[in-house]
């Protein structure tokens, strides 16, 4: 289980980051671990797979792509280990293939919402959102991007480098400049860590700030999200847990030691209500937030519920 633990640690410490990348890495790790369990009987095999799945899922509580990927990968109906491994390997290979193809589909569907001359604001670092932007650029549209810094981890720096290397004119702003800058923007495009059954978006902290500023300025906000980022458990009324990360991401621990009356909160995500979202762009089409239940039922399956 050493290799799987390494992947889990990389997800926990954000060496592997981004909801889609986390999901693919976890699926591959579980698949490869299953291959090492051929000598076990089916009861021992299932117990080990369940323990490994929990190890992966517990690393990041908010990104629903992680438990969805693990659940889709590990489920099997076999009564012997060899067949169970074959099912898990097939599940993982299919999941990873679909995840890679989804980005291209989301890019093509989302690019239809971008017009020549548009200025697009984005937040954090989302492969799905960037796929839309790059596809619009590839179509010859004269676009530019305003990207937020995305503190405290500054994932926006990854975004601006990626867009720069692609040749897309990009401006970096600090997070607190969103409202001031929104008047220059034509469209906001963000990714997703989770989408609940009521269409609410859980994404990088600061996303709701963009959404509120876009609403005030009468700018559309679209969310780019693969279908595996929708949360089946919210059908049961369960709230998506918002991850709190360590204070060391925000302030030097030595400085904090000098401030005994100060504590630091570092929530990694926030919630954007469905009414602030114009469309969710998935690999199966552009959908209003109200169709979240349909995505969960038809593309994830209600059997994923506990």
UniProtKB/TrEMBL annotation:
GO molecular function, one term: S-methyl-5-thioribose-1-phosphate isomerase activity
This protein's name: Ribose 1,5-bisphosphate isomerase
InterPro entries (UniProt xref): IF-2B-related (IPR000649), IF_2B-like_C (IPR042529), Initiation_fac_2B_a/b/d (IPR011559), M1Pi_N (IPR027363), NagB/RpiA_transferase-like (IPR037171), R15Pi (IPR005250)
Enzyme superclass (EC): isomerase
Coiled coil region boundaries: none
Family the entry assigns: Belongs to the eIF-2B alpha/beta/delta subunits family. R15P isomerase subfamily.
UniProt keyword list: Carbohydrate metabolism, Isomerase
């Amino acid at each position: 289980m050493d290799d799987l633990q390494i992947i889990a640690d990389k997800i926990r410490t954000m060496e592997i980051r981004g909801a889609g990348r986390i999901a693919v890495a976890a699926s591959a790790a579980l698949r490869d671990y299953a291959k090492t369990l051929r000598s076990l009987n089916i009861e021992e095999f299932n117990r080990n797979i369940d323990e490994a799945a929990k190890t992966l899922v517990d690393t990041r509580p908010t990104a629903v792509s992680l438990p969805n990927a693990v659940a889709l990968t590990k489920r099997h109906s076999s009564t012997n280990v060899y067949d169970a491994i074959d099912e898990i390997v097939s599940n993982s290979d299919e999941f990873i293939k679909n995840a890679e193809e989804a980005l291209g589909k989301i890019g093509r569907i989302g690019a239809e919402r971008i017009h020549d001359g548009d200025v697009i604001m984005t937040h954090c670092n989302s492969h799905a959102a960037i796929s839309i932007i790059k596809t619009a650029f590839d179509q010859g549209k004269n676009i530019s991007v305003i990207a937020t810094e995305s503190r405290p981890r500054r994932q926006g720096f990854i975004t601006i480098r990626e867009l720069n290397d692609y040749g897309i004119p990009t401006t970096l702003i600090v997070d607190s400049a969103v409202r001031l800058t929104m008047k220059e923007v034509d469209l906001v495009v963000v990714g997703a860590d989770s989408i609940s059954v009521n269409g609410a978006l859980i994404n990088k902290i600061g996303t709701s700030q963009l959404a509120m500023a876009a609403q005030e300025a009468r700018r559309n906000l679209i969310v780019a999200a693969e279908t595996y980022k929708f949360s089946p458990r919210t059908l049961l009324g369960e709230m998506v847990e918002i991850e709190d990360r360590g204070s060391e991401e925000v302030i030097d621990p030595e400085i904090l030691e000098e401030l005994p009356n100060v504590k630091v909160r570092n929530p990694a995500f926030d919630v954007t209500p469905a009414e602030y979202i114009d469309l969710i762009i998935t690999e199966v089409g552009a959908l209003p937030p109200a169709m979240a239940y349909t995505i969960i039922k038809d593309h994830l399956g209600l059997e994923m519920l506990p």
